[in-house]
Amino acid sequence: MNSAETEQRKETAQTWFEALRDRLVTALEGVEDALPAGAPLSDRPAGRFKRTAWQRTDHTGAQPISGLPEIGNVDAGPAGAGPGGGVMAMMQGRVFEKVGVHVSTVFGEFAPEFRNEIPGAADDPRFYASGISLIAHPHNPHVPAAHMNTRYVVTTKSWFGGGADLTPVLERRRSQADPDAVAFHGAMRAACDAHSQVAPYGKFKKWCDEYFYLKHRGEMRGIGGIFYDWLDTGDFAADFAFTQEVGRAFLDIYPELVRRNFAKPWSETEREEQLVRRGRYVEFNLLYDRGTIFGLRTGGNVESLLSSMPPVVKWP
């Protein structure tokens, strides 16, 4: 692959992640606006996202070689201009106790102790990574928490990865037969089936079930979804099209699931169950999540990386 083609692919992927971020932000602000009068917390003002730019240091902790553009164009820093950065978009509202939609584009060299773990980095530690990550923690225990992220990584190899999963916080809603679970799995299956030549649904669903598993507790974090990594079939256009489909599928299904549930009243007992279940979310992200580990070990923004943590949690 020549350099010009590589750079074009990077730009194409990054542009998509930024566009998807903007669509998700609009959709979730629309959910805040749609909470009906008389619903729990409807007397509060609708939330709005706040965007914050950040700059990455390299694996040594050194500052960027040169400054990034101002926040209006911070996502667009070219490879070679410095270690990169991104924009955090965070919202606290009346539907979402905490939701973040972040885009980052970083580049540089992997730290020596990390190079053997990344395909294509053992002999040449230079890398580029761009991606989007969404984490949503609603107020209402009847509304499931959710996670979605997709990314494009380039070393001497290149690949896509990511997925989406759903985390109901009430025991009676964590059944695979629950209507929300059925709808979410249906959306993820449809995304895979539309690109079956590169995205086998059964494999990606099983991968998600096994990935989002708390080994120390012997239980899944939620009800699953899909997960994939190192997707490089040799057809960039096909791999990218599927990655786009994952983002669009999540954009369609998750706001719908929130709207189905956000006006339901909840009890203190259900709130307590929600807070305890959130503890499982924290445990997974700190102990097992590859994205968190990757970001912390490549000079990522700590506030952005840990924004996945729920705002209130209990360990009884």
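Second entry:
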Amino acid sequence: MNAIETVNLRIWYGNNEVIRGINLAIPKNVCFAIMGPSGCGKSTLLRAFNRLLELNEIARVEGDVKLFGRSVYGMDSVELRRQIGMVFQIPNPFPHLSIYDNVALGVRYNRLVESKSELDKIVEWALKKAALWDEVKDRLKDRASELSGGQMQRLCIARALAMRPKVLLMDEPTANLDPISTRKIEELIYELKKELTIVIVTHSPAQAARVSDYVAFLYLGKLVEVGKTEDVFENPKEKLTEEYLTGRMG
């Protein structure tokens, strides 16, 4: 069974169709990269997976999205977003909350623990999974705003992981980071995919090649090509894919 599957998915913003009949299957416990030039619909597709598009008044969706075989439209939206975590392009911790409280917030709100000691364990576990614990373990009461950009992004990853999702969506997670922070997050992706499915949106073919097991290439809202990363990069079947990968288009 696939982690995520779309069935003839079509999405409009007003009268503008931005996703055009996409059928896509994302296996479990892999890193799946969605790549393509700016404006091709990558982020919109990602937001369809956990129904974030419902927060946009002009968005309209047809077709279906399935999470482990179950339509997301038959699920409670809060429960769905517990199972499908999200990390955005610009790090968005709550700046005035402490590092600890940023990670603990969703767990507390959803009443997933019964004691402070249990919460402490989850916060430590999530920060370790996000490769941030060693850097912040002695400053958990500091405000999140005191972290560097790369640390903030890993804090957001820890916040998502604390909810124990089955899928983690990452929308250009390193676009605004320095090379060292980018490398740390890419290494983190490699470790996390052993335990959950990661779907990453990127405009960088090089990043897709580094981190993903499977890749999909979108262009103007259409799915041009999808397959194992090494196959698509070494022997693209579509001319558009080849032009994008070689820098002649994009």
